[in-house]
Amino acid sequence: MNDQELKNLFKSMDHGKPSEIEVARWKRFLRQEFQSRTPREWARLAVACLIGVIIGATAFYGRKQQTSDSDFSSEDATIEMIHVNL
Amino acid sequence: MTIPRMDVQKWDRVVEEIGPRLYRYFKYKGASDLASDLTQETFIRLIGTAQRFDSAQGPLIAFALGIAQNIWRENLRKTKPLDPLDEAIDLPANTDLHLELENLDQGQKLKAIISRLSQIQQDILYFYFDEEITTREIAEILEKPEGTIKSHLHRAKETIRLILEKEWS
User: Fold this and answer.
1) CA-closest candidate to residue B54, choices B118, B3, B130, B106
2) Which residue in chain A is spatially nearest to B113 when comparing CA positions?
3) Nearest-by-CA chain A residue for B15
């Protein structure tokens, strides 16, 4: 018995096929699945946006704070010292 | 065929094309009453893993059958624990088998022989002969080296040949 004969024998086995009702049931189920997934996708997007805003705001205010701290430069400190010594 | 994202019309076509093939696979594995539910479960997982599908790696049916065989194994685990040596077991030298095969037609005989093979050999035979999937793609589906797949395929074919030829002689 060669491969082709084995293949033909294999193909002759009847595993049955789904009824049209079953195929329609899968389609209907997947539609419901998509409908329930769409709000979930939006919720995920909203959370991602919120995280983005928080990270952006933190970075922005962090940098602003650093800038205001460095406004008091070493030059200002020297002038301050001269004033004190005088 | 690619996996459409959130496009109901296109998904309908995917269901029509691969649904019956997944259903046949589950029937072949012996899930007579569960075949429809397990097919549905496969579609849900397929939606969830759509981004992992790469058409360059093989056809969509091969990807879907990979999910289906995982679902089948999970189902088996729920109903009865899998033998840890399952993948290594070959058809036992069963003296009753020839008595069992008497009065069966060719298809039924083949079914009876296959049902005694290991799960992995059953899968490989189905993917290779029924779905005509290459050994390379089967290796991807079952996450095994191609050499292992070829070796299992060879042993399964030899087992079937030996039994059937003995029957005919």
Assistant:
1) B3
2) A10
3) A27
Q: Is the model's pLDDT at B85 over the cut of 50? A: no
Query: Using CA atoms, how far apart are residues A74 and B16, in angstroms rounded to an integer?
Result: 76
**Matching residue, tokens 């990270």:** A55
How many interface pairs between A and B have CB atoms less than 8 angstroms apart?
81
The CA distances from residue A22 to A29, B21, B67, B93, B141, in Å, are: 10, 13, 20, 40, 26
| Chain A touched by B20 (CB under 8 Å) | yes
Instruction: Say yes or no: B134 contacts chain A, CB-CB below 8 A.
Output: no
pLDDT tens-place values along chain A, 86 residues long: 788 888 888 888 877 889 999 999 999 988 888 777 766 777 888 898 999 999 998 888 888 777 666 665 666 666 666 666 66
The verdict on a CB contact (< 8 Å) between A33 and B44 is yes
Confirm if B38 and B19 have CB atoms less than 8 A apart: no
Two tokens, residue A83: 């004033």
Residue pair A5/B129 in contact (Cβ under 8 Å)? The answer is no
In chain B, the residue whose alpha carbon lies closest to the alpha carbon of A19 is B20
Contacts of B86 by beta carbon, 8 Å cutoff, 6+ apart: B118, B119, B120
- Among B63, B100, B60, B76, residue whose Cα is nearest residue B26: B76
